C-alpha cells in the first residue's frame, strides 16, 4: 500500500484498502472557512444537533478578513454564535490568517492525519504527510454530525525531483514548470506525491507551496513523506503525537515521473489559466501595475525574506504598486521581528491584513480592466482579482519583488547571489 492508503485504512478501521475503493474514514480535523456558512445551515437541515467532536473543528475567518460588507460581518456574527453554541474552541478570528497557514502555525497539520476543509487548497497539508482534501458545505456538515466522511481511495502519481535548485528559483517555479508540462487536468482525482533527493533543499514553507499547487492539476490530495525537516517543524510547534506511515516498496504508482530541478528557471503562468506557463524571460520588460505578495501559496516568512532582499534600499517606481498580505498573524509577527515588513514598507509597499484578501478578488488589492498583476498566488482565471479584464501572471515571491523593484517583469536572479542572498 501507499502511505496515503495506510492513512485511509487506519481511519476506516480496515487492514488494507486499494485505489478506487470507497472508504468511510474518521476525520482528524474539519475546517470551515467564512465563505461556507452554508455548512452550518446544512448541518441543521440534515438533523444535526450537537457537533460530535468540537475539539477537532476549526472555524477560519480568512476570506472576509476584515469584512468589507455588512453581509460578511453578519456571516461572521452567525459563525461566532455557532461556535459558542457548539463549544467550538478553535475559532480563528479575522486577525489569524489563511486557513492552511493557520493550521501549520498551530501545529495542527501532522503526518498520518485526515484533514478536510471547505477549501480546494487543502492539498497543502500533504507537506506534512497528511491526507488533506477540500470539500463543499454538505460534506463538511456530515463530518460535523458524524465525525466521518467517505472518500474514494485515489491512485497516486509520484513526481521525483532531482538535481540542485538554482539560486533565485523556488518551489513555485518548479511546480509551475511541472503544471505547464502536465496541464491542469493531469491529476484529476489522483494523489500527487513529491519525492526525490531535491526535497532535501525544500523547507516546509516551500513544500507547502508545492502541495498547494497540485490543486491546480486537479489533484484530490498531495503527499510528501515526512522526514527530519518535517519532524523538526512539528517539534518546534509542540507536536509529537502522530503516526508516520511509509509506502511499501512494491507499491505500483499510476505514473512515476522525474523532473530535474537544476534546469528550471523562473516561470510565469500567464492569463487565463494556471497551465499557460512560460519562462519569465518571455515577458521580461512587460509593465506591471500591481505586484501582489501573499496567499496560502506565497505569503510565508521565507517569501517575505526574499522580497526584502530584492527590495532593500529600493523605491518601487510610480505606476506600480505592491500589496503585501502575510498569510497569517504568526507570519506577520515573524516578518516584523526580522524587519522584512519594515524594509518593504520603506520601499513603498502597502501592508494589508492577513487573509485571502485580493487573492480571490474580495478586497484589498483588486485590479481594474487591463491592469497587469504579477502575483505569488495560485490562480489567474478571469475576474479572479477584480476586473474580468485584469491580467494576472503567477510567479514566485522573488519574481513579484523583482517586478515591484523595476515596475516591469524582471528576472529576480540578477539581484541574488549563488546562495540566494542579496547580490
Ligand atoms: C473557498 C473557495 C472560494 C476557494 C477554494 O476552495 O479554494 C478559494 O479559497 C480559492 O482559492 O479559490
Ligand atoms: S489565500 Fe487564496 S488560494 Fe489560499 S485559501 Fe485564500 S483565496 Fe484560496
TrEMBL record:
Domain of life: Bacteria
Function: Catalyzes the isomerization between 2-isopropylmalate and 3-isopropylmalate, via the formation of 2-isopropylmaleate.
GO BP annotation list: L-leucine biosynthetic process
High-level lineage: Bacteria, Bacillati, Bacillota, Negativicutes, Selenomonadales
UniProt-annotated binding residues for [4Fe-4S] cluster: 296, 356, 359
Name of this protein: 3-isopropylmalate dehydratase large subunit
Reactions it catalyzes: (2R,3S)-3-isopropylmalate = (2S)-2-isopropylmalate
Domain Aconitase/3-isopropylmalate dehydratase large subunit alpha/beta/alpha: 53-281, 285-407
Necessary cofactors: [4Fe-4S] cluster
InterPro entries in the cross-refs: Acnase/IPM_dHydase_lsu_aba_1/3, Acoase/IPM_deHydtase_lsu_aba, Aconitase_4Fe-4S_BS, Aconitase_4Fe-4S_dom, HAcnase/IPMdehydase_lsu_prok, Homoacnase/IPMdehydase_lsu, IPM_dehydratase_rel_enz, IPMI_cat
Pfam assignment, any one: Aconitase
Alphabetic keyword roster: 4Fe-4S, Amino-acid biosynthesis, Branched-chain amino acid biosynthesis, Iron, Iron-sulfur, Leucine biosynthesis, Lyase, Metal-binding
The keyword Metal-binding belongs to this UniProt entry's keyword annotation: yes
Amino acid at each position: 500500500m501507499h502511505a496515503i492508503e495506510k492513512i485511509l485504512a487506519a481511519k476506516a478501521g480496515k487492514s488494507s484498502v486499494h485505489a478506487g475503493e470507497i472508504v468511510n474514514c474518521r476525520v482528524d480535523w474539519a475546517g470551515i472557512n467564512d465563505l461556507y456558512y452554508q455548512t452550518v445551515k446544512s448541518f441543521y437541515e440534515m438533523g444535526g444537533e450537537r457537533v460530535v467532536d468540537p475539539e477537532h473543528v476549526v472555524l477560519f475567518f480568512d476570506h472576509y478578513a476584515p469584512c468589507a460588507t455588512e453581509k460578511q460581518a453578519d456571516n461572521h456574527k452567525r459563525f461566532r454564535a455557532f461556535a459558542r453554541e457548539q463549544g467550538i474552541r478553535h475559532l480563528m478570528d479575522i486577525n489569524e490568517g489563511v486557513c492552511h497557514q493557520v493550521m501549520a502555525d498551530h501545529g495542527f497539520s501532522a503526518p498520518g492525519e485526515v484533514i478536510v476543509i471547505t477549501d480546494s487548497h487543502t492539498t497543502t497539508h500533504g507537506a506534512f504527510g497528511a491526507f488533506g482534501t477540500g470539500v463543499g458545505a454538505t460534506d463538511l456538515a456530515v463530518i460535523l454530525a458524524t465525525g466521518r466522511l467517505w472518500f474514494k481511495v485515489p491512485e497516486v502519481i509520484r513526481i521525483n525531483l532531482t538535481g540542485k535548485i538554482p539560486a533565485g528559483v523556488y518551489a513555485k517555479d518548479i511546480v509551475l514548470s511541472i503544471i505547464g508540462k502536465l496541464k491542469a487536468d493531469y491529476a484529476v482525482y489522483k494523489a500527487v506525491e513529491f519525492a526525490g533527493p531535491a526535497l532535501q533543499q525544500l523547507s516546509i514553507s516551500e513544500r507547502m507551496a508545492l502541495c498547494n499547487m497540485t490543486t491546480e492539476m486537479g489533484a484530490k490530495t498531495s503527499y510528501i513523506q515526512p522526514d527530519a525537516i518535517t519532524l523538526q517543524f512539528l517539534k518546534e510547534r509542540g507536536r509529537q503525537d502522530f503516526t508516520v506511515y511509509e509506502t511499501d516498496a512494491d507499491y505500483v504508482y499510476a505514473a512515476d515521473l522525474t523532473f530535474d530541478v537544476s534546469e528550471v528557471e523562473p516561470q510565469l503562468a500567464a492569463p487565463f489559466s494556471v497551465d499557460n506557463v512560460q519562462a519569465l524571460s518571455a515577458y521580461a520588460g512587460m509593465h506591471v501595475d500591481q505586484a501582489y505578495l501573499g496567499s496560502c501559496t506565497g505569503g510565508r516568512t521565507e517569501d517575505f525574506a526574499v522580497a526584502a532582499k530584492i527590495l532593500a534600499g529600493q523605491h518601487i517606481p510610480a505606476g506600480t504598486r505592491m500589496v503585501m498580505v502575510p498569510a497569517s498573524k504568526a507570519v506577520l509577527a515573524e516578518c516584523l521581528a526580522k524587519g522584512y515588513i519594515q524594509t518593504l514598507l520603506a520601499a513603498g509597499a502597502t501592508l494589508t491584513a492577513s487573509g485571502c484578501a485580493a487573492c480571490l478578488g474580495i478586497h484589498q488589492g483588486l485590479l481594474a480592466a487591463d491592469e497587469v498583476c504579477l502575483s505569488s498566488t495560485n490562480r489567474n482565471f478571469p475576474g479572479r482579482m477584480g476586473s474580468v479584464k485584469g491580467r494576472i501572471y503567477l510567479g514566485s515571491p522573488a519574481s513579484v519583488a523583482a517586478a515591484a523593484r523595476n515596475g516591469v517583469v524582471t528576472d529576480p536572479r540578477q539581484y541574488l547571489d549563488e546562495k540566494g542572498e542579496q547580490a
